[in-house]
Write the structure tokens for this entry.
Amino acid sequence: METVVISDYNPDWVHDYEQEKRAIKEALSDIAVAVEHIGSTSVPGLGAKPIIDIMVGVHRLEDLTEAHIERLAAIGYEYVPKPDWPERRFFRRGRWRAGTHHLHIYRHGDTHWEEQLLFRDYLRSRPDVREQYRQLKLALASQYPDDRVEYTRRKAPFIEHVLRLAREED
């Protein structure tokens, strides 16, 4: 199991994302439609596991070839097949169980792509909801310090609730 540690918001996360974005765009220049900073490190003021989540949109997941996987490996991203995540391709950077970056490749504009942006943008624009989420994350990290899977599972109802609110206001 992976330890759950929630760090205070760090403005350097944005700079780190921007650096990675340039390298990823170059590695995937022939298939990347868009690159976005997602996850808690993309929300100013929100505490997070200090892992930069990056989302790349492509027209079709099948466009990701072995050559792309090799280019990403050359800049430090290891492909991690996740059969339980058919909607995306997943890469990690950093030591196993101590990764520093997660790269998610989605079909640009699909439901999963849109939900990532909707959740991020809602938290960015609603300080009260952002604070509720921060408090939940801290409580869950305290309750499940050695079980990242359970920590993540317990956040899901809150995330679904926020997505419903965001859709209603959209």
Helices lie at 12-27, 66-74, 111-125, 127-143, 148-169. The beta strands are 32-38, 52-58, 78-79, 88-95, 98-107.
